[in-house]
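Structure first, sequence second, as always.
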């Protein structure tokens, strides 16, 4: 599975935030991801999380959103896209 990079939308696989969507805004020196969701984890205080505890949902949003509101909008669109994709897959079965 490919490693998450900056601008990707990821879902948390472990921890108390399991199942939540985040935008990757960068990396720390030791390789951990810096994640924001625009509500509980804002750009001013991103969450640090190991890449092995995340999965990429959407590759390469156009750019790192500059505001918390833009992050929330990006995540809402990613959630809608993921839900539509899941419905298509269930319909094909």
């Amino acid at each position: 599975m490919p490693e998450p990079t900056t601008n990707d939308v990821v879902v948390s696989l472990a921890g108390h935030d399991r199942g939540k969507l985040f935008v990757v805004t960068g990396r720390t020196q030791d390789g951990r991801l810096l994640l924001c969701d625009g509500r509980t984890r804002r750009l001013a205080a991103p969450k640090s999380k190991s890449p092995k505890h995340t999965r990429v949902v959407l590759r390469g949003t156009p750019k790192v959103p500059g505001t918390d509101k833009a992050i929330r909008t990006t995540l809402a669109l990613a959630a809608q896209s993921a839900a539509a994709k899941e419905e298509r897959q269930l319909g094909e079965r």
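Margin note: The chain has one helix and five strands.
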